[in-house]
Amino acid sequence: MTPQRESARDGERLQKVLARAGLGSRRVCENLIAEGRVTVNDEVAVLGRRVDPDRDRVLVDGITAVVRDDLVYYLLNKPARTVTTAKDPQGRRTVVELVPSEPRVFPVGRLDYDTEGLMILTNDGELTNLLAHPRHGIEKEYLAEVDGVPSRDAIRQLREGVELDDGRTSPAQAHLVQDRGASSAIELTIHEGRNRQVRRMLEAVGHPVRRLVRTRIGPIADRSIDPGQWRPLTRSEVRSLYAEVGETGEDAEYGEYGEAEGPGADDPSD
C-alpha cells in the first residue's frame, strides 16, 4: 500500500487538521471539503479523508494550508549593526540571536548590516524558497532618509528605472514623504533583489542614504514592533504570504532545517 493510501486510512481527520491550522471551525472546514475546495497531495479531498500533517500536502483554494505543528514564523524588526546570518565569523550580533533558539530558523532573504526593518525568520523551507525566488517578485517597501531633497526628475527616474552598473532597475514606486531641507524621507517599493539595490538607486539619482528601514514584505507590515523585538506571524499572515506568491510549491527546493537552497535564497535588495 502506498504512503498516500495509508494516510487516507490512518492519521487525523482532515477537518480537524484544517481547524487546528486556523481555517475555521470543524463545521466550516467540513463545508470547505464538501465544496471541493481542499486537495490532499493533488487529489480533491472528500469528507472522511484522513491525513498525516507531517507528510501530506494540503491546499485550500489552491493555497498551502500550514498543517505541520513544528513550523514557526517570526516577524523581526531588525536593528542596525546586526548581520543577517545564523553565525558570524567576526562575532557580530546576528538576527538569529534575537529570536528563540529552538526550533532552528533561518532568515528569508537578508538586510544589510546597517539597514533596519522587517524580516521573516522561519523553519519553513518551502515558503522561504518561494518568497526569495526572483520570479515571484515579492514587493518590499523601504523608508529611506537621504541627503538633500530629490527633484521631480529624480523621483521620476526612480519610478521608471535607474541605470546601475549591473543594468537598469525595474520600475518602482517612489514618493517623497518628508522634506527636511538638508535631508528628506523617501518611500521606495521594489520587487527585485539586487545587491544593495535601494542604496545604489538613491545614490545614482544624487541622494545617498543616511538611514534605511524596510517597512513591508509583501502583505506583511507592522510598525508597532520595536527594533530588536519580534512577534510570531499569525496563521492568516502566513497564508497571505503563500497567496502572495501564488504558489504551487512544486519548484520549492530546500534542505534540512528549512534552509533555502534555490535561486534567490539571498535577497540583498537593501
Describe the structure.
- With 270 residues, this protein is an alpha+beta fold.
- The chain folds into three domains: 3-64, Structural Genomics Hypothetical 15.5 Kd Protein In mrcA-pckA Intergenic Region, Chain A; 73-135 and 220-258, Pseudouridine synthase I, catalytic domain, N-terminal subdomain (Alpha-Beta Plaits); 139-217, 2-Layer Sandwich (Alpha-Beta Plaits).
- The chain has seven helices and 16 strands.
- It has helices spanning 3-9, 14-20, 26-34, 125-132, 152-160, 197-204, 235-244; strands at 12-13, 38-40, 43-44, 50-51, 58-60, 63-64, 73-78, 106-107, 116-122, 140-147, 163-164, 167-168, 173-179, 183-190, 209-217, 230-232.
- Strands 7, 8, 9, 10, 13, 14, 15 and 16 form an eight-stranded mixed sheet that branches. It has a four-stranded antiparallel sheet with strand order 3-2-5-6. Strands 1-4 form a two-stranded antiparallel ribbon.
- It is elongated.
- The protein starts with a helix and ends in a 26-residue tail after the last helix.
Structure at a glance:
The protein is an alpha+beta fold and 270 residues long. The chain has helices spanning 3-9, 14-20, 26-34, 125-132, 152-160, 197-204, 235-244, and strands spanning 12-13, 38-40, 43-44, 50-51, 58-60, 63-64, 73-78, 106-107, 116-122, 140-147, 163-164, 167-168, 173-179, 183-190, 209-217, 230-232.
Spans of 5+ residues with little confidence (pLDDT < 50)? 248-266
The profile of the biggest β sheet is: 8 strands, mixed
Mean pLDDT score: 89
CATH superfamily of the largest domain: Pseudouridine synthase I, catalytic domain, N-terminal subdomain
Class from secondary-structure proportions = alpha+beta
Shape: elongated
**Total count of strands:** 16
* Tally of alpha and pi helices: 7
CATH class bucket of the largest domain: Alpha Beta
Helix content class: 10-25%
Whole-number total of structural domains: 3
Percent strand equals 25-35%
For the record, the CATH architecture of the largest domain stands as 2-Layer Sandwich
C-alpha Rg (nearest Å): 21 Å
Q: Termini, distance in Å?
A: 51 Å
